[in-house]
Amino acid sequence: IERINFGEEKEDKGFCLVNIGKGKTSYEFIPVPARRFITIDSVIPQGEDPTNTLLHEIESHDLSDAIVRIFYTMPAEGVDSLDFNKINSALGEAFLVATIAEKTKPIERTRRAEVSEDLGMLDALDKYIQSNPELVPLTDELKTRAQKLEQELENEDMKGG
Question: SS3 helix, strand, coil % of the chain, rounded to 5?
């Protein structure tokens, strides 16, 4: 009895021995040896050598005769420095290397500021600034300029033009 995929990685493999008698039924789970499936999931911090980090992770597992997959997450600028020859060499004891793949981080989308017509101009501007962190240092200047523009528009409306 063998494992068939990584979904069974942590399950014991075996069979049930069932004894059926008059008025009494019993069963016993009998584990059997099965090829191990091992997932190595590594997060490589910025500034660390990605190859050495993965090699250290690999060395911390007994991979002999196992089916192995490796997932890693790392800063984009370090991907080119991975030495796959060294990594594959370190996986030599494994029965099979199913995959070595980078996990991608989902793109974080900035939520649009919820602005309605009921908000005043300065409140709407404040919500917009708060939803765009790069504008926060410019808050005072942006509000001052917005107030000047609003005043100019009001003055033009009063003049009729």
Answer: 40, 25, 40
Burial grade of 100 (CB within 10 A; 0-12, 13-18, 19 or more)? middle
> Residue 18 is encoded by which pair of tokens?
């069932």
- Enumerate the β-bridge partners of residue 3: none
CA nearest 1: which of 98, 27, 11?
A: 11
Report the helix count and the strand count for the chain, using DSSP H and E: 4, 5
The total number of residues written for the chain in this structure:
161
Write out pLDDT tens, residues 58-106: 999 999 999 999 999 988 777 788 899 999 999 999 999 999 999 866 5
